[in-house]
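User: Predict the structure for this protein chain, please.
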Amino acid sequence: MKLILIHGREQQDLDAAELRKTWLKALEIGMSKSNVSFPENIEILFPYFGNFLDDLYQQVEEAMVRTGVVAKGHEAAMSQTQYELLKELAQNARIPAVALADQTAIIREKGFLNLSPVQWLLQVLDDYTSIGKLTLETFTGDVSFYLDNAYPRNELNQFIAGVFEDDDDYVVVGHSLGSVIGYNVLHGLNKKRIRKYITVGSPLGLRTIRDKLAPPIRMPGCIRDGWYNAYDDRDVVALNPLDKLHFDIEPPIFNRNDVRNDTPNRHNIEGYLSDEGVARAIYDALTGN
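Assistant: Here is the predicted structure, written as structure tokens:
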């Protein structure tokens, strides 16, 4: 049995070993709440792609500069997909019209008179929600870059798929952008045995993301014992459940929205893996319970 952990956005220039320890420490805390410990004889694979993703950014930008598409310094964050993502996040956050007007006035007072639509939405969400402008900018930028560009998407998918090397059983955990990458990768692993797919803080329920996925939206054929999705309903990135309305597949995904992620932005992985229910779902999948 192998456990594969697919991390999310904003991981560039981090130490892969330390990041892996952060995940496992939080998972051990969560398991301890059920009086269980991490099972023995489980191989843990942590395919760190933070710097790889950054390299792909640079390759795409250099290609765009060479072909005259953009000038040097162009940011993928200025894409239409990122704008649509931010607009959907703002709608999901239910920012009332009066508050939007108030935020516009505040932004104007701060001197941000010439913001692009993307930057304006980032500022509004930063002022109104707990997730933070930098996190939102990086998350929506990375997701947009991944969804909009076939070359980096394929390269990143192949990188993650490379850890599924044998015919062992696997449990896969995907967080944030990692849950989107995991969904795509698992569709190419029909001959593998994925005991369970577990997603936390997943944005797959966002229409903007769903519309960019290859149709039809369906359960990856390699998943044997179902898909478990957990989120904090205060997490702006993951407000939509993966249900019949937002991610209609058969068999349906099990959704749990009562996670209380106590990290400052309600989205960080430590707040998800330390949750008793999430940790127990991983433990049960690993032990066959």
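Strands lie at 2-6, 43-45, 169-175, 193-200, 227-230, 254-256.
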